[in-house]
Amino acid sequence: MPVAQIFEIADWSAPELDVFARLTDTQLRSRLEPEKGVLIAESPKVIGTALDAGYRPLALLMERRQIDGAARALLDRVGDVPVYTADRALLAGLTGYELTRGVLCAMRRPALPPLEAVCRGARRIAVLEGVVDATNVGAIFRSAAALGMDAVLIAPGTCDPFCRRAVRVSMGTVFQVPWTQLGHSNADWPEAGLAQLRALGFQTAAMALRSDAIPLQRFRPPAEQPLAVVLGAEGDGLSPETVARCDRTVRIPMAHGVDSLNVAAASAVAFWQLRSSDAP
């Protein structure tokens, strides 16, 4: 079996380190797209989850002590990819922060699957509109994985689930839950995107705090029809046009004068309540 190639970092300006320290998430995604797009996974657990899902490692950056420590099992799995190493203080100087559990892995960014492939056979999916905070996107994916959602669709204006922070917060579930884009420009959403979902047989439920919305605990989606749960941006929530075009509007009742939940918290409540009967 090929053995990982370990390189002691001697030159901070070496171009092979750009992917870890000097390229932004946007540059990793778009400057190198489509066939050379890169994502960054952090920590042995998250990297291991990506490897389990078939993602291809390109290079690793880790603290020296990890080579015979927590990352040993990773090195046995990644073949002959380059592994760059130094002690913790030097690496913090390169990346600007301490590494999460001491390990970063640059991985090939896969082409996103077609909408029809992601939705085929799905009973429950989540649709994210304008959710721009990477922490929220990562947390939503983690809830989707834990609470039996079959897929996540990303409407235009939502944060990239493969950005570094979203991957980290998701604990690698962005590599486990099928997802794809639902349109690529503002013109594709909401009218065209919701029409696509309807054509694929989905009922759509907008999560919105409106007085005429159905309380979540009373909403009973048809057992024979798959459901798309549509969640909106932090603060403003879903656009009025999106709410108007969805089949149903559903709300989580609030107590003690609380005006709303964070979208990640709301997603967990909705996913649990609306999970399909065959979910774990």
Task: Give an account of the 3D structure.
- The protein has 280 residues and is α/β, with parallel strands linked by helices.
- Helices cover 30% and strands 20% of the residues.
- The chain contains 11 helices and 12 strands.
- It has helices spanning 18-21, 25-31, 44-52, 72-75, 88-95, 115-119, 134-146, 164-169, 191-199, 240-245, 263-274, and strands at residues 5-8, 38-42, 57-63, 82-86, 103-108, 124-128, 151-154, 179-181, 203-207, 214-215, 227-231, 248-251.
- The strands form 2 sheets. Strands 8-7-6-11-9-12-10 form a 7-stranded parallel β-sheet. A 5-stranded mixed β-sheet has the order 1-4-3-5-2.
- Helix 7 runs parallel beside helix 11 (263-274).
- The longest helix is centred in the middle third of the chain and has 13 residues, at 134-146.
- The radius of gyration is 21 Å and the shape is elongated.
- The mean pLDDT is 89.
Label this structure with key terms.
280 residues; alpha/beta; seven-stranded parallel beta sheet; five-stranded mixed beta sheet; 11 helices; 12 strands; 20% strand; elongated
Shape: elongated
- Tell me the radius of gyration: 21 Å
Portion in strands = 15-25%
The strand count comes to 12
For the termini, the CA-CA separation is: 38 Å
Described by strand count, sense and barrel closure, the largest sheet is: 7 strands, parallel
Structural class: alpha/beta
* Global mean pLDDT: 89
Low-confidence stretches: none
Helix content: 25-40%
The helix/strand order is EHHEHEHEHEHEHEHEHEEEHEH
Reading side by side through the largest sheet, how are the strands ordered?
A: 8-7-6-11-9-12-10
Number of helices: 11
